[in-house]
Design a protein that fits this description.
Elements: H1 5-44, H2 53-58, E1 64-69, H3 77-87, E2 93-99, H4 104-116, E3 120-124, H5 133-151
Parallel strand pairs: 1-2, 2-3
């Protein structure tokens, strides 16, 4: 059996087509769920009631954590943190910034803000960066859990 250029291209095209089909099945599932739910709501008359701002403000605030993975963000991280602290209209939150041991400039920028505001905490990943955001976020979550245990509180 001899392979020709056209035969190789044909096989590769089939392989790629199957790959695209398989990778799109999860999108198809989400779309089907959305359309099924929308059709069910229309047929049953079920509606979601809109929540007003006053209803939201009447509820007690829950403690929340804002997680920020940072790698070579020294030029913007300080300004971003200060702006967030100044403008967010919510009281019970803390900001956890993940940094890497080999990114001294970002560490310094985050520490300057953390020293000025107790709501900012720097979490150190145990290894040099960069890594992917998921890795950094996982270490931030671990840092939040440690802080929760130490403070005997829990973020929602």
């Amino acid at each position: 059996m001899t392979l020709t250029y056209a035969g190789v291209v044909h096989c590769a095209t089939g392989f790629v087509a199957v790959g695209i089909l398989v990778s799109g099945l999860d999108d198809l599932f989400v779309d089907c769920c959305y359309y099924f739910t929308a059709a069910y709501r229309r047929a049953s008359g079920a509606r979601f009631r809109s929540v007003t701002e006053s209803e939201l403000r009447s509820r007690p605030e829950q403690r929340i954590a804002v997680m920020i993975p940072a790698w070579h963000e020294h030029a913007v991280i300080g300004k971003m943190l200060r702006n967030t602290l100044r403008t967010v209209d919510y009281g019970d939150y803390e900001m956890f910034v993940g940094t890497y041991p080999n990114d001294e400039e970002t560490i310094t920028a985050v520490e300057e803000v953390a020293q000025a505001d107790p709501r900012v905490h720097r979490i150190v990943c145990p290894h040099d960066g960069p890594t992917n955001k998921a890795d950094c976020l996982n270490w931030i979550i671990a840092g939040i859990r440690l802080r929760d245990k130490a403070a005997d509180k829990r973020v929602e």
